[in-house]
Structures are given as C-alpha cells and as structure tokens.
Design goal:
By secondary structure, the chain is of the alpha/beta class. The chain has eight helices and five strands.
C-alpha cells in the first residue's frame, strides 16, 4: 500500500478547516475516487512551526517505515518572525534531506513553495509589497534547495496570490486557506504526486 508523509505547518495540517478539508486529506480523497490505493496521510505538522520546530516534531513523531511520497511545505513562520535567510537555508536543506531519506528518492519528495499571507485581509495595514518581496526571497531558497537535490518543486504561491483576497478562499480567520483554496492546491499538486509515484509520466 502506498504511503504519503506530509511535513509542514498550519498550511499542511489545515488550520481553520475540518481535518477532511486540508489539502493532504483532499488529495487522499481524490486518489480514493480514482481507485488509487494509498493509506491515510501521515501528517507531521503544527500551526506556527518554523523549520527548526518541524525538525524537532519529526524527531518526536519518528515516522516509521518507508514512504512512497512526501511533501515539504514550511517556512512561512520563519519569514513572519523575521528569521534570517541563512539559517532558514541550512535548516530547510536538512529537512529536505530527511524527507528524501523517508522516501528513498528525491523525485518522490514534493517541495511546495510558501503561500503569500500578505495578500490576505489579515495583513491589512502592513506593507504588502515588502511581505511579497520577503516571501519571494524565501521561496528562492526553497527552489534552490529543491533544484540542488533534484526534487520537484510545486508553485502554490501563485494560487495564494491570485485568490488570497477572496473570502471564499479563506478560513474564518481571514488568513489561512479555506477548503476551496486547498482544492486548488490539490489540482496543482496531484499531477506531480502521480509522477512521483510513477503513475503518470507527464
């Protein structure tokens, strides 16, 4: 049976939505509809986690066994707290290495770019352009790390920027994605997961 490990923070655990509405859960449901056998996702994520906290969370959870595919979506809390890019780069590379170890192959690790929280109503009164520029710098580090390890990198930043001001795409806190936004991310991620699993070649 295929196994999926989802590593991250609030965007992975689905802060503000029902557990079945998070993007890993929606992806699993899509696979079930398509009769693609996969166990329920193993999720190691928590709202507010930085790269260092995710690393500690992985050590505590100690996910066992081999995984067919993994996802890594982390960094927004580093950016939000004003973390340094150099420290983020080092910690992210270690997390990517751990994810590759869990799957046994870089092509089976999907690296997701960070969403832009600066387009949401939560950021009202803040310098949205500065937030976007800062997130772009963090995402450059993410893409660079993925490229170095030959891991696929999936852009969900564009989706977040396109829909982040639409209430339908936001949870009640006006910051985190709604089930509708997560469904859009699944649309983007699903083909890459299928390729990682060897089910689809292009």
């Amino acid at each position: 049976m295929r196994r999926f490990l989802a590593l991250g923070d609030s965007y992975t655990i689905g802060e503000g939505v029902a557990p079945a509405e998070s993007w890993p859960a929606q992806l699993h449901a899509r696979f079930a509809e398509a009769e693609i056998e996969m166990e329920q996702p193993v999720i190691v994520a928590q709202t507010g986690w930085t790269t260092a906290e995710l690393a500690a969370g992985i050590r505590a959870a100690a996910p066992a066994g081999d995984f067919s595919v993994a996802s890594l979506l982390i960094g927004v809390n580093n950016q939000y707290r004003g973390g340094l890019l150099g420290a983020f780069r080092a910690e992210f590379r270690k997390l990517l290495g751990a994810a590759i170890d869990f799957t046994g192959a870089p092509r089976r690790v999907l690296v997701l770019t960070m969403p832009d929280w600066g387009v949401t109503p939560f950021a009202e009164g803040k310098d949205r352009d500065a937030i976007a520029a800062h997130i772009d710098r963090f995402n450059h580090v993410i893409r660079e790390a993925a490229r170095e390890r030959w891991a696929p990198c999936v852009d969900i930043t564009t989706s977040s920027r396109r829909h982040g001001g639409d209430p339908r795409y936001l949870a009640p806190d006006r910051l985190h994605p709604s089930a509708v936004m997560y469904a859009d991310w699944v649309r983007i991620v699903e083909p890459e997961v299928l390729k990682a699993l060897g089910i689809r070649n292009n």
